[in-house]
Design brief:
Helices cover 1% and strands 56% of the residues. By secondary structure, it is mainly β.
Length: 700
């Protein structure tokens, strides 16, 4: 049991490519790697790196029925839910900290905005960096970073997929790739997907589609030019949460998880559209050095609309619902939201020796710009709703109120160096200087605010290889985070304002081991992050600095291969608390929606005597969570979920059919899965009911 409560994910197999070599073109299917470009240290394997990261490959995503980033919550113990609503964008926590949608997500290493629906149809893998993100991001929440790696035409692919899940969701997708020309110097890959959305949640039917094109060209053996473009759209009503009923936590067993409180006749879908494109040039200068220029752009368009439950005016409670199960219902509409992100990364990477010491150096500059442009929004009272979903109200009056436009610019100079001090000991150095500028102004062109700031964040680590396959490390680093006040003028006196960046700090100790049949790791971390909070005694009041959130924990993991069995387990023990708050009721409390204990297991059994058939199982277990920042006694109980699946690869002549079937929450367990405290309000999201899924993928 002690080992089970200390499990984290180990990584797959390593290779020894140099940091300066260009990617090779292969005509066979790529094998999942234990390298992650998100770490910023080139081709050094994760098993030899003084940090914790996880790489989740395409096949693993397919086997578990992953559709979006929320799927990471079943893959790694450090990742959990953070206000995950059906029909809205996905939100995650890592090591108890919510990842910032604007700063903590990457696409092929470049910053993107995750305030949208991120499709996985054209993604080769997801990389997760756990811990201080300052090494790779000028501004970001300290829990970690997520990087989406786009599929490239590395191999010939002819694949079509048909899938069904939930009440009646149906997906069709095609993945085509080829290489051509002299020496196969050109490559093209196309991904197309369309889906009718009909989940188990009622009143949540929708649709989505994606088209993605990626190409590359090798004019010389030392030059690689890559370009890609993606366009996607999803239209689907979103899911409001339940809440406290007066002073009590309602029993999840008495709540139908299929009820959607956003079921008014005037409810409209959330529409999330996105266009993304990038161009990357990689040039090998000589045997030891290479240069890279990488530009990316993202255009998002959102119609955010919701019948929004919030508070109980009848009982004078504005952070929960009424004791009888009713709540105040608001008509929220913010249409034609536009978000633009542009980024240019210029870097030089190589290796050299000086004074008898070997160096692997990366130096570069990252320019990024983010713009958010909004129209006036509607947020008006529409009546009284009920948690049984039976109440019908008229829409609220179309009274317009101001929104806030924002412009943000970053220039980041970075330097990373791995120095081999002895055959067993190396030091890892990172330094990032960030110059940031933030501007905000209301949509009526009033209350303009802005500031500029220069911040330098260091990172240092030492790792020691005790013997082949066993290493330990210690690291220390800083990060910075820039927050924006929620656009709620009734709650905040500075709505929409960008706040000055504050520094977070992390200390981490780790141990990693590897044999032919077993990978394992053990990590202890201590992260201290400054917090902004509102003075609840005065409403509205400004969001201001108020102490910090300190998270200390243990992670561990094991990946074992024993005969026909494969086991991947991860777990985390986390002690999170608010410190140095001006509010004595908050000081020392565990933050809302942060479990103290998490255990996750994925297992697979290759059935003897039936080639191509494997049986799969998964367990996700999380301990209790608090609901309120000033009341650690009010909690939702812990829960456990069991998922089952099977995969059969059937050979027909030279073709392969891959059949998959799975059922999530096989025991149809009812529980409160998470308890986010959002917009000064406590919310409860139920665990999704038992959900079946079936898919067929075929070579064409």
């Amino acid at each position: 049991m002690a080992l089970a409560t200390l499990a984290s994910t180990a990584t797959a197999q390593a290779a020894d490519d140099t940091a300066t070599s260009l990617p090779t073109v292969s005509i066979s299917a790529p094998r999942e790697s234990n390298r992650a470009e998100l770490t910023g240290f080139g081709d050094i394997p994760l098993t030899r790196s003084p940090l914790q990261a996880r790489v989740i490959g395409e096949e693993q995503l397919k086997d578990t029925g992953a559709q979006n980033l929320r799927a990471l919550t079943s893959q790694d113990a450090s990742v959990s839910d953070a206000y995950n609503s059906v029909g809205y964008w996905d939100s995650l926590t890592v090591r108890g900290y919510v990842l910032d949608q604007r700063y903590n997500y990457r696409r092929d290493g470049l910053p993107i905005n995750a305030e949208t629906a991120i499709a996985l149809d054209n993604k080769a893998r997801i990389e997760l960096l756990k811990g201080t993100s300052g090494i790779q991001a000028g501004t970001s929440a300290p829990g970690g970073l997520a990087n989406l790696v786009v599929k490239r035409p590395d191999a010939d692919v002819r694949s079509a997929t048909l899938a069904w899940r939930g009440a009646n969701s149906v997906l069709g997708a095609v993945d085509l790739a080829t290489r051509f020309g002299n020496d196969r110097a050109f490559g093209v890959r196309v991904n197309v997907a369309a889906e009718h959305l009909d989940p188990e949640l009622r009143a949540a039917k929708g649709k989505r589609h994606l088209f993605a094109l990626a190409g590359d060209w090798r004019p010389t053996p030392d030059t690689l030019i890559e370009a890609e473009v993606e366009t996607s759209r999803r239209s689907q009503p979103s899911q409001p949460a339940f809440s406290l009923l007066g002073d009590r936590v309602p029993s999840a067993n008495r709540i139908d998880p299929r009820i959607n409180l956003n079921n008014q006749p005037w409810s409209q879908p959330v529409v999330l559209e996105g266009q993304t494109a990038s161009l990357r040039l990689t040039q090998r200068l000589n045997a030891d050095w290479s240069a890279k220029a990488h530009y990316g752009t993202q255009r998002l368009h959102t119609d955010d609309r919701l019948a929004f439950p919030y508070g109980c005016d009848a009982e004078g409670n504005y952070d929960r619902y009424c004791s009888d199960g009713s709540f105040d219902l608001y008509d929220f509409r913010s249409e034609n939201e536009r978000r633009v992100t542009n980024a240019l990364d210029l870097s030089l990477q190589g290796r050299f020796a000086t004074a008898g010491l070997a160096h692997q150096l990366t130096a570069g500059v990252l320019f990024s710009r983010f713009k958010a442009r909004f129209e006036q929004q509607i947020y008006t009272y529409a009546g009284v709703g009920s948690i049984d979903g039976s109440a019908v109200t008229p829409p609220g009056p179309a009274i317009l109120s101001d929104n806030t436009d924002r412009t943000e610019r970053n220039t980041e100079l970075y330097l990373r160096d791995v120095i081999q001090l002895t055959p067993a000991l190396s030091t890892w150095l990172g330094l990032r200087h960030t110059r940031l500028h933030r501007d905000a102004v209301t949509t009526s062109d009033t209350e303009a605010t802005g500031y500029g700031q220069n911040v330098t964040t260091p990172w240092i680590a030492f790792n020691y290889e005790w013997r082949p396959g066993l290493m330990s490390y210690v690291s220390w680093g800083q990060g910075i985070e820039s927050q924006v006040v929620p656009n709620r003028p009734l709650s905040y006196s500075n709505p929409g304002q960008a706040l000055p960046a504050l520094k977070s700090r992390q200390l981490e100790f780790g141990l990693k081991g590897r044999t032919d049949a077993l990978d394992w790791n053990l990590t202890a971390f201590d992260i201290d992050r400054p917090v902004y909070a509102r003075d609840d005694s005065v409403v509205p009041s400004p969001l201001r600095s108020d102490g910090s959130a300190r998270h200390r924990g243990l992670e561990a993991g094991i990946e074992a291969r024993t005969g026909a069995w494969t086991w991947v387990a991860s777990a985390m023990l986390l002690h999170a608390e608010r410190t140095d708050s001006a509010d004595p009721a908050v000081d020392g409390q565990r933050p809302p929606n942060v479990p103290e204990r998490v255990f996750k297991l994925q297992t697979q059994y290759a059935v003897a005597g039936w080639a191509g058939l494997s049986l799969q199982g998964g367990i996700v277990a999380e301990s209790d969570r608090t609901l309120l920042p000033d009341d650690g006694a009010t909690r939702i109980p812990g829960w456990a979920r069991v998922d089952l699946g099977a995969r059969y690869a059937q050979k027909i002549d030279t073709r392969t059919l891959v059949w998959r079937i799975g059922v999530d929450n096989v025991l149809d367990r009812r529980a409160w899965q998470e308890s986010p405290y959002q917009f000064e309000h406590a919310y409860l999201y139920p665990m999704a009911p038992r959900t079946w899924r079936v898919s067929l993928s075929a070579d064409l």
